[in-house]
Amino acid sequence: MNVRLLKAGGKPPMELLLLADPSQSMVEAYIDKGECFVAEEDDQVVGVYVLMSSGSETVEIINLAVAEEHQGKGFGRALLMDAIQQAKRQGYKTIEIGTGNSSIGQLALYQKCGFRITSIDRDFFIRHYEEKIYENGIQCMDMVRLSQAL
After folding, report:
1. pLDDT surpasses 90 at 10
2. pLDDT score of 9 more than 90
3. For position 133, which CATH number holds?
4. Residues 6 or more apart in contact with residue 79 via CB below 8 angstroms
5. What does the pLDDT average to over 76-93?
6. Range 70-94 average pLDDT
7. What is the number of domains present in the chain?
8. Would strands 138-139 and 2-5 be described as parallel, antiparallel, or unpaired?
9. Structural domain harbouring 98
10. Per-residue buried b or exposed e for 46-70, using 16+ beta carbons within 10 Å of the residue's own CB
11. Which residues make Cβ contacts (< 8 Å) with residue 139, sequence separation at least 6?
């Protein structure tokens, strides 16, 4: 897998970004504020993540997604580790990520990769999304925020 920064003016893989964030308006609001990295395997885009500075020493992984046909093969972990290394190279001291309370697999992965839960933004997905979101038979209501020191 090769991960590269999407060049300015490049077309972000919206179909992948929408896997992690189902609101196109939300994705469009932050995509230009961050750096979009795409992962390729055999000349095919298989994953994406977006890093966005949230202060002079802190960066957030604002979106991370793997194409459905490539899930469960370690690409998510590889992307997460690449984002951590990218943040270190850029001199950040802390990296953050958020996910829904119903995103059980993502919560496990992030903690396995060294992230710790720092806060919960109650009703985030109710306030910011018009449609109800369900994962794993659970309504996604709260944003679980995690971080790790770099």
Report:
1. no
2. no
3. 3.40.630.30
4. 3, 37, 39, 47, 48, 49, 64, 66
5. 97
6. 97
7. 1
8. unpaired
9. 2-149
10. bbbbbbbeeeeebbbbbbbbbbeeb
11. 102, 132, 133
Q: Is 9 exposed, middle or buried (0-12, 13-18, 19+ CB in 10 A)?
A: exposed
Task: Classify strands 94-100 and 58-66 as parallel, antiparallel or unpaired.
Answer: parallel
Q: For the beta carbon of residue 25, count every other beta carbon within 10 angstroms.
A: 10
Q: How far is 115 from 131, CA to CA, in rounded Å?
A: 29
| HSE-up (13 A, CA, CB side) for residue 125 | 24
- The residue assigned the tokens 């469009």 is 28
Strand pairing report for 116-121 and 35-41 = unpaired
pTM of this prediction exceeds 0.85:
yes
Q: Six-digit token pair at 122?
A: 């109650």
Q: For helices 75-89 and 104-112, give the axis angle rounded to 10 degrees.
A: 50
